[in-house]
Amino acid sequence: MITQEQLKETFERKLALRRYLDIDSKKIQVEEEELRTHVPDFWEHPKEAQAQMKKIKDIQAWIDGYEEIDKTVNELQLAWDFLKEGLVEESEIDALYADAITKIENLELRNMLRREEDKLGVVLKINSGAGGTESQDWASMLMRMYLRWCESHGYKTSIANLLEGDEAGIKSCTINVEGDFAYGYLKSENGVHRLVRVSPYNAQGKRMTSFASVFVTPLVDDTIEVKVDLALLSWDTFRSGGAGGQNVNKVESGVRLRYQFTDPYTGEQEEILIENTETRDQPKNKENAMRQLRSILYDKELQHRLQEQAKIEAGKMKIEWGSQIRSYVFDDRRVKDHRTNYQTSDVNGVMDGDLDAFIKAYLMEFAATEE
Fold it and tell me: How many Cβ atoms are within 10 Å of 129's Cβ, its own excluded?
């Protein structure tokens, strides 16, 4: 049973959120932005119109989130008053309190995602490390984990490219994740992930260690301006592989994009290579590959900005095989994040996509340094 002090603290957190989010100003802002949609020629410019509607939707989401909290906390207060009259059970009070705290924490967490790129979708790439089949199997397990997390949070996902393993698992995959604040949450996953388990691929039943790297970049949308020099771009086409079907190995629908990039800050040159086999439609695959290129170029600019900020640079983890961000030790029933020291024994839950506690711990510790 909760205490009077816990009830008071819940009210204080609700009021603090109203101040932090400036809900009253956001309500006025929504009204002003909606007035802009009432002009007669509003839909004659679809791209600008859609951007305006998204802007309204984004502001309204903060208002709706707060009003849901306000409603839940008021119900909690009412139930508390009824408890004295014996009209509700203590278990009902506890359930309402837990619901209120969850909603408050979720909105507080989202409020920490203030950087421009946090609100974007994600290009999430997984590469298996050295170790053959074992590491390739681990990479496929991570792919499943992230797809499950995305599904549970209502994010739309598509596999842009998939390179299957020699015997099992995958060598690499690229997943596009679309939805509000996907990058803000999943940026915590950028790094090397280490698995320790008794390998099903080892005849002696030995405990083995495998690695896979996860690279997370913002998925740019039409509101982000990224300059692509078409003179530095070239295309190849190839036949997509697959399990079978009429078009497999007959139509060159797969595309390979090569972009000769020169870093404007360091002068270093590199070739950016992107393959896309997402659909059987070559023009669509080209469009998707171009979107990934814009995302990569945007991320390179972001990384430069981050490197200019000493506070962030001091807290960054290098993506190296010797500096994993998280360890998954199956036989010890333990998953531990080495940056925050948060750990859990619910290995099955984590592998089924329950990553919220890890994401929250990361943002609580590092989001403030990104301001």
Answer: 21
Q: Quick one: 233 exposed, middle or buried, by C-beta within 10 A (0-12, 13-18, 19+)?
A: middle
CATH 3.30.70.1660: which residues of the chain?
Answer: 122-222+318-367
Q: What is the CATH number of domain 122-222+318-367?
A: 3.30.70.1660
Distance CA 348, CA 262 (A): 44
CATH topology of domain 233-311: Double Stranded RNA Binding Domain (3.30.160)
For residue 3, the SS3 value is: coil
Give the span between the Cα atoms of 141 and 350, in whole angstroms. 11
pTM of the model: 0.73
The model's pLDDT over 284-294, given as tens digits with 9 standing for 90+, comes to 999 999 989 99
| Residue ranges matching CATH 1.20.58.410 in the chain | 4-112
CB-CB contact of 19 with 108 (8 Å): no
- Three-state secondary structure call for residue 111: helix
Distance CA 223, CA 14 (A): 32
Burial class of residue 364 (count of CB atoms within 10 Å of its CB; 0-12, 13-18, 19+): middle
> Are 207 and 331 spatial neighbours (Cβ–Cβ below 8 Å)?
yes
How confident is the model over 236-250, as pLDDT tens digits?
988 876 544 444 445
Pairing state between β 334-337 and 343-344:
antiparallel
User: Over the stretch 115-128, which tens digit does the pLDDT of each residue have?
Assistant: 888 988 999 999 99
Q: Does domain 4-112 have CATH number 3.50.50.60?
A: no
User: What number is the average pLDDT over the span 347-366?
Assistant: 93
